[in-house]
Amino acid sequence: MTTSHALAPSTPTRRNPFGTLVRQREVPVASALVALVIITTIANPLFLSAQGVKDLMLNATITVIMAVGLGTVIITNNIDLSVGSILGLVAFGTGSVFAAAPDIPIVFVFLIGLALGALLGAINGFLVTVARVPSLVITLGMLYIYRGVNNAWAGGQQYFAGDRPAAFGRLSVDTVLGVPIITVIAIVVVVLVAVFLARTRPGRDLYAIGSDDQAARLFGIPVSRRVLTAFVLNGTLTGLAGVLYASRFNSVGATTGTGLELDIVAAAVVGGIAIFGGSGSVVGAAIGAVLLTTITSSLTALGVDKFWQQAIVGILILTAILVERIASIRKARRLRTSEATHA
């Protein structure tokens, strides 16, 4: 006699919310930030004074905005090394606008800065998508071209805090609920770009392009147009950062923004955006920017030599890349195991 056994219904796998949260790329970075603040505060209680907190926010603001912009480009498996030069051009241009028209409404100055940044970003994106030369090469060349233009334009001239309207300078002084106005602007930028990447078709396409641009083309994604969009968005946000830089700091000139691009790349990578594209978030990039600027402030408060500050940032970058590489290898192994099991 044959005994029949009914197949047991499959039980859906329950996801552990805590486990899902812990696996998020932003969690280790945020945890490191919290630990750093706690350790520094124990060693130096003035670190989290009201003025200390405000300084931390102000120091991170411009880096956050630029890391968000560059993050969208890195997600597509591209890079833009000219962001420091773009910021310098826009910052000096902002000073020039105020010198030529002292009574110009501040909102127009922001629009001019955004437009100039978008134009420079569009030039980068156009060259990358049309010439089909690696973005590393194109933007490295544009870094020197934009810097050369700024040097020729500025020469030895500088614009100082006294050359701008008082209302413009107060953007980094006045606060909303204790948060500096320019930091509020940065928070709004992070939220808007995060929503764009997560909730819109063009934003999600950027991840597909970064994962495999050839497959993205086969699925009908307009790769060139999307990559150009990422570069324009990056340029626009860098332009915004340039205007805020002119408000935040006492002077702008030919050397403004020099070397800043490396800090921005570091912030995005440390924040969990894969250097080879396809994964990560601008929220993580923003947290990475806050972490790096806080490291500098913390080590300064503890009296640590500047060399060690740079060395620690370098270690963080290498660690982030190694972690990403290990995660990719493990993911590939799991995928091969799964395919072999179902074969």
TrEMBL record:
It is a multi-pass membrane protein. The keyword Electron transport does not apply. One of its GO terms (molecular function) is transmembrane transporter activity. GO terms for cellular component: plasma membrane. Keywords: Cell inner membrane, Cell membrane, Membrane, Transmembrane, Transmembrane helix, Transport. It is found in: Cell membrane. Its main location: membrane. The chain crosses the membrane at residues 29-49, 56-75, 81-101, 108-133, 177-198, 227-246, 307-327. It comes from the Bacteria. InterPro entries: ABC_transp_permease. The complex is composed of two ATP-binding proteins (LsrA), two transmembrane proteins (LsrC and LsrD) and a solute-binding protein (LsrB). Part of the ABC transporter complex LsrABCD involved in autoinducer 2 (AI-2) import. Probably responsible for the translocation of the substrate across the membrane. This is Autoinducer 2 import system permease protein LsrC. It comes from Frigoribacterium faeni.
